[in-house]
Every structure is written in C-alpha cells, then in structure tokens.
Amino acid sequence: MRIRVDDIPEEGLYVETDDTDTWAFQAASQAIEGPVHELKVVLTLTRIAELLRVSGTASARGGHVCDRCGGDLEISIGGKVELLYEPIGKPDSDEVHLTDPSDLDIGFFDGLALDLTDVIMEQFALWLPDKVVCGGRGVKQVGAAWSCAVAAQPEVPERENPFAKLRLPD
Ligand SMILES: [Zn+2]
Questions:
Q1: Torsion over CA of 164, 165, 168 and 169, rounded to 10 degrees?
Q2: 64 CA from centroid of ligand 1 (Å)
Q3: Full-model pTM
Q4: How much distance in Å is there from the Cα of 167 to the middle of ligand 1?
Q5: How far apart, in Å, are the Cα atoms of 103 and each of 72, 84, 120?
Q6: Each residue of 63-80: pLDDT tens digit?
Q7: 74 C-alpha to ligand 1 centroid (Å)
C-alpha cells in the first residue's frame, strides 16, 4: 500500500485500515509472527519539509506460540504511533530541527512514496517483545490454563545402524 508523497495534502492524509484489508492483515501477521485476529490502524501522514511524519494509533491481537513452552497464546500489542521517515540518500537537511530526536523512531523511504505495509510491519515489530511467553505483558494462554515450563525436548530416536542387518556372505 504505497502512498505517493505528492498525494499527501498540506493538512495531512488520514489513513484508516483494519484486518479486512489483506495488505494490512498480512503485514501485521508477519510482524507479530502469527495470524492476526483483530487489527486497527489509524494514521495521519504529514509532510515536514522533505520528511514524512506518521502519527496515530495501532493495535493488533493475534496468535503466537510461547517461546518457553510452545503452547498456543494470544498476544495483544498496540499504542501510539510516532514515526518519522527520511528520504534515503539525501544529505542531512538543516531545515528541520527535531526537538528531541531520541523520542522518535526514524525510518527511510525512497523520497517518492511511503509503503504503509512497511510502516505497519516496523511498528508492530518494534512493539513485539523479544520473547513472547505465558504470563508476559498482553499475553494470554488460549484454552484451559497450563503451567508454563521449558518444553521437553522431543526424544530423538536412536538412528538405526544401517549396517545392522547387513550379513556378510559366508
Ligand atoms: Zn509458555
């Protein structure tokens, strides 16, 4: 879902999407590493000189597997979106001085169009915890509760000696 910079009016461009949009569903599912059950994204794209600011809110709920026990979980993530995109390959501009750049996540775009698929993927990937485990923030177990423990390693069957049945000729 590419938005051309030229199509963004002075006052900003309002974009709303949810899981009924295939591109948004796929982007969010890929970012949270599981199928999204619910997705809501409300963004405003604004041009600041040659930069693009993306602000709004986003939230997703989707399936995930516990990184500790392998059980089926559902994770909910979301929050405020505040991203800034800079055209790639352009020398640093003196025109824009950010009050506190550390507050912002800066990404890059080709200067012509911003791909909202990338924006959604980046934002949800930023929010996704490094480890998704039972009892984690925004995480709940699916179905009857179980106690989360390190999954037993599947027993590796001892490989049969391929020569075991080999009979040497008498
Ligand atoms: Zn677990």
A1: 180
A2: 11
A3: 0.77
A4: 49
A5: 34, 10, 19
A6: 999 999 999 999 999 999
A7: 11
